[in-house]
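Intended use. Records like the one below are meant for learning the mapping from a protein sequence to its folded structure. Do not use them to infer anything beyond what is encoded.
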Amino acid sequence: MEKDTSLDYEDVEKQFHSSPKIVENFEFLQKIGVFEFIDSLTSEIRNYKTLLTRGLDIFNRTNIDEIMDATVWQISYLFLPSFISFLWKPIQSRPDITIRSYQNYKLVDLDIKIDSISAFETFFNQFPKPENFNVLEKRLKNDIALEPLKNLQPEIVIPIIGPFGLYGIILVGRKMLGAEYDRHELTFLQQLMPFVSQAIKNHLHYEHSLRDAKTGLYNHGFFMTRMKEEVMRTKRSSNVSSVIVIDVDKFKNFNDTYGHLAGDQVLETLAQVIRQYVRVDDIPSRFGGEEFTVLLPHTEISTAWKIAERLRTSVGEMQVPWEVALPQVTISLGVYAFDKNCELDTTGILRRADEALYISKAKGRNCTTIWEPGLIDAFPARNDCNIHLP
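Structure written out for the chain above:
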């Protein structure tokens, strides 16, 4: 348990002022500014304690939304900006950015039309501190990069710097009340931002550890962990959950004919479509190679089939950007639902979904199949397994 030291400070202060030597030399000490200096140190210590309390409030948040909500609250507690916007890269290896903006403590859409923050990276690696927007504009000398931000009229731009470069930037608008930001307010921002940056970086690093580097979807390990959790959860409840197994049809042809880089582009584009058409609580993952899985918590089989078909038709219309026109990509899918009456473990459930995928392949590919008893008996025995299970 942490000891309360507030009384200790008071006791020390009383002892200091009641010391015979201090009393004896009081006028001299006052004349040379000792007491004034002590007061300034006391005020500075108090400010640092307040900063530490505010910083820890941000740092101890457990997800990105809470981190940003807490940051907005802590900044707005001292002065109310016209807006605060966070622009960050969820996946450090990709240029895509996510934007979250606030006005009067509320989440708003400021319609910031910017696709990348890469143009700011060199500048903030050289000047890794909060910067006045006018100063940034003069030093950066990149009107194209700054144009989307000019309409917002930000006052301050704050970088989020990590070991892999620029993770994001924070835009702080002009003060709603009062003149420009004074030196103390800028100092507060500069001192608070390391807490914010570290909290966001910790979250992003954790997210990166769960993601497949090539596609940005969840990786095999995280999917299997969530799958096991969901199987256990359904056994304790009356809910139904589902899983979809996906395989890219004739993917080897892309690699053999157009090269592995073209194959990589197919996978990355497919992952974008999957992210776009699954729901917030779904767990899309790259299971390995050209194989993907989607865990659908709280999802009946009829809804799971609709989601699978939505993915299949969307991929069938997908255009893969490449040097030459690539053949149309199609996928085959298998779907399986499980509830508290399911006696299978995670591996058994995935094997059922994979059997349904095999039927989709046997039917001629580019289709979705729902597993049901006796399904696999109607087709020839399998020689392999698309989803490589233990």
